[in-house]
Design brief:
Layout (H helix, E strand, L loop, with lengths): L2 H21 L5 E3 L2 E3 L1 H22 L12
Antiparallel strand pairs: 1-2
Length: 71
């Protein structure tokens, strides 16, 4: 699997996680001395999607606009 395919898979999996977490309203809670905040978790997932988008955008072809000049 190529790097591009891996990034696309990471993005797809992260979006699926976000959909699952968003569909199930969960409160923040403590367990074994650790505190879990679902809003922070969603923000973490969004940053991962943003990173994937940036990586995918850098792989897209691009053009430099130029203009010819004839003296």
């Amino acid at each position: 699997m190529s790097d591009l395919e891996n990034i696309q898979t990471i993005k797809a999996n992260t979006l699926a996680q976000m959909a699952q977490v968003s569909s199930e309203r969960k409160p923040s809670y403590r367990e074994d001395g650790q505190e879990f905040h679902w809003t922070e978790y969603l923000e973490h997932l969004q940053r991962r999607v943003d990173w994937c988008n940036a990586q995918l955008a850098s792989e897209e072809p691009f053009e430099f606009p130029t203009q010819g000049y004839t003296p």
